[in-house]
TrEMBL record:
The keyword Ribosomal protein does not apply. Its EC number is 3.2.1.20. The keyword Transmembrane applies. GO terms for molecular function: alpha-1,4-glucosidase activity. This is alpha-glucosidase. Keywords: Glycoprotein, Glycosidase, Hydrolase, Membrane, Signal, Transmembrane, Transmembrane helix. It comes from the Eukaryota. It comes from Cloeon dipterum. The chain crosses the membrane at residues 592-618. Pfam families: Alpha-amylase (PF00128).
């Protein structure tokens, strides 16, 4: 009996050993696989940087930025450590909505340069290991697109490329045709424009010069998919899809009910509740179809592509863009939580809730992302002030997922006040002199501030006047000055992008969020390994410095933390060792620490030790 027992014991130990070997092998293989897949994941670990081409760099002194200007500044992207360059539209356009009205989806607008300039830019990116992402505006074309002319003339196959409807009747007072329903343009006024030649109205959810494409027509879908293929062949590494929720409308065209929001006048878009023109369930399969095209091209060209989606909609609808079941959608829809839900009044517990809610809403396996600002919304430094903007950018870079930066955020550029006379954004112009400041997006689109020379180095001194005025603060706030300054927004930004590249905790660490007292929000990106550092970010939402005791933070089991970056106005220096029991966090500021999950790794190490002792004793 005893012999038997010991044999059984040996057998089970052998099978245990085999299992351990198996686990080690599987781990090694997994590491091997993720090493091979490094480029596959570029879109996860990188920071995307949105370039607004009109305002980035003007190479030909006409006061408008261009592709050659971007090519001239490619080393800036490398310098600040971003890996994906996303261009706002550069396609041929009458510029009624500054490029978001495309008249030829396969041409570069002469304002921005030529196809050769595009190819040079794409090559320049490739040479530097940068990925190039294009804005794709699938929703509408310009009224100067040849498709629209042919559609007016009812020339097949273009007859139903756009959404045409008969007038509801004729206005007896004015003799004018009456629009099919009450739908309003995002920019104000009726969404319907009458065309004399075709004697029908066409739908335009933006300006009249942007007729909506008809996605219920499969020919339109195929046409747009071909355009995606065209640009990937030209060197694009993916797309950002613009204004997606508006892609389709209810095909029975009912009136929309009033929103009863007193903030809006009856001809403003916000005065209606957009139940028939936004978020229709039929639009998601169109997006999944685009993804299929992108994946097929990726396979063909052997280059990992990315597809990001812009959709201002509910959290539930946003998540549908990831796909459904096995059907893939976007790599990610933009996470606008920092733009739409975080403001100056947000408390620490609300911030935790906002972040947790997004992370918890992600479908299984979905990749997160954080957008801090863009060309449509008040700049982060103006939204939150110059101090909290740094905290917001720090969170955007260190929370799990892809980070997205709007050009100028890395130097904390601010909005520029623009007079009515200088206003050019259609959303501002259509609102009129009384309301334009509320609607115009010009303030966030002014030229990039490179240095303290005339026009902030955006163009040359004897250039034509820039298309939008340069911010008056450029002599003090510019890239060149910040390069000389320790702890400048630029210096902090670079440290953050470096962390994304270098630290596994930022690439794949678990997220832990908590609050300390009323005003401190804390998150950790933690790893169990004793060899690698975990990251701790501390954010103060109060207007005054707060002394925080972090010893209760659940995922911080370590005795000591090393200061990594001290944000602005901190008395600490980088590399300083601190005890978590007393940390001074500057007003509206953030601190970043590195720590080792010492306690847990010690437990693990001792467990391993005990285990191997038992094994050797048994043998
Ligand atoms: C469309 O028609 C208008 C007016 O007939 C003309 O000016 C324009 O050049 C045409 N555009 C295209 C792309 O054919
Ligand atoms: C008809 O035209 C008049 C004058 O332009 C306008 O006040 C009225 O609102 C219009 N009615 C309809 C039903 O469009
Ligand atoms: C997209 O098209 C829809 C309707 O097709 C329209 O409502 C929306 O405004 C358009 N958005 C953009 C950015 O073109
Ligand atoms: C938030 O606070 C900052 C600084 O205190 C201020 O500059 C900014 O205008 C405020 N933002 C809003 C939307 O009120
Ligand atoms: C740093 O503190 C000073 C003095 O309290 C303040 O004036 C300044 O705005 C702060 N800087 C930032 C970027 O918050």
């Amino acid at each position: 009996m005893p012999t038997n027992d010991s044999r059984t014991l040996h057998l089970s130990i052998d099978s245990l050993n085999m299992r351990i070997v198996g686990v080690i092998l599987a781990t090694l293989l997994a590491q091997q696989a993720s090493a091979q897949l490094a480029d596959v994941d570029w879109w996860k670990t990188t920071t995307f940087y949105q370039v607004y081409p009109r305002s980035f760099k003007d190479s030909n002194a006409n006061g408008i930025g261009d592709l050659e200007g971007i090519t001239l500044k490619l080393d800036h992207f490398v310098d600040i450590g971003i890996g994906g360059v996303w261009l706002s539209p550069v396609f041929k356009s009458p510029m009624k909505d500054f490029g978001y009205d495309v008249s030829d989806f396969r041409e570069i607008d002469p304002i921005f340069g030529t196809m050769a300039d595009f190819e040079e830019l794409a090559q320049g990116c490739k040479d530097r290991g940068l990925k190039l992402v294009l804005d794709f505006v699938p929703n509408h074309s310009s009224d100067e697109h040849v498709w629209f002319n042919k559609s007016i003339a009812r020339e097949d196959p273009y007859t139903d490329y756009y959404t045409w409807r008969d007038p509801k009747g004729i206005n007896e007072t004015s003799g004018e045709p009456i629009p099919p329903n009450n739908w309003l343009s995002v920019f104000g006024g009726s969404a319907w424009e009458y065309n004399e030649e075709r004697e029908q109205f066409y739908l335009h959810q933006f300006v009249a010069g942007q007729p909506d494409l008809n996605y219920r027509n499969p020919l339109v879908v195929t046409e747009m998919e071909d355009i995606l293929r065209f640009w990937m062949d030209k060197g694009a590494d993916g797309f950002r899809l613009d204004a997606i929720p508006h892609l389709m409308e209810d095909q029975t065209f009912p009136d929309e009910p009033p929103s009863n929001d007193p903030e809006f006048t009856p001809d403003q878009w916000g005065s209606l509740s957009h139940i028939y023109t936004a978020d229709l369930p039929e639009l998601y399969p169109i997006i999944y179809g685009f993804r299929k095209v992108v994946d097929e091209k990726q396979e063909e060209l052997g280059r990992q592509m990315v597809m990001m989606v812009e959709a201002y909609t509910s959290l539930e609808n946003t998540m549908k863009y990831y796909g459904e079941g096995d059907v893939k959608g976007a790599h990610f829809p933009f996470n606008f939580e920092f733009i739409t839900n975080v403001n100056n009044e947000t408390t620490a517990s609300e911030l935790k809730e906002i972040i947790d809610r997004w992370q918890n809403a992600l479908p299984s396996g979905a990749w997160s992302n954080w957008v801090i600002g863009n060309h449509d919304r008040t700049r982060v430094a103006s939204r939150f002030g110059r101090d909290f903007s740094i905290a917001a950018i720090t969170m955007g870079q260190l929370l799990p997922g892809t980070a997205i930066t709007y050009n100028g955020e890395e130097i904390n550029m601010e909005d520029t006040w623009i007079s009515w006379a200088d206003t050019v954004d259609p959303q501002g112009c259509q609102a009129g002199p009384e309301f334009y400041e509320k609607f115009s997006r010009d303030p966030v689109r002014t030229p990039y501030q490179w240095d303290d020379s005339v026009y902030a180095g955006f163009t040359i001194p004897d250039s034509e006047k820039p298309w939008l005025p340069v911010n008056g603060n450029y002599e003090e706030l510019n890239l060149a000055a910040q390069k000389q300054e320790e702890n400048s927004p630029y210096a902090i930004y670079k440290k953050l992008t470096a962390m994304r590249k270098d630290m596994n905790a930022v690439k794949s660490g678990q997220l832990g969020t908590s609050t300390v007292g009323e005003n401190i929000f804390v998150f950790t990106r933690y790893l169990q390994s004793a060899d690698e550092k975990s990251v701790l970010v501390v954010v103060n939402l109060a207007e005054n410095e707060v002394n925080a005791d972090l010893t209760g933070v659940p995922t911080l089991r370590s005795g000591a933390m090393i200061t990594y970056h001290v944000g602005v106005n901190s008395s600490y220096t980088a590399g300083q060792e601190l005890s978590p029991s007393s940390v001074n966090v500057p007003a509206r500021g953030s601190l970043v620490f590195l720590y080792t999950n010492a306690a847990s790794t010690t437990v693990l190490a001792s467990l391993l030790l005990v285990f191997s002792v038992i094994l050797s004793l048994l043998h």
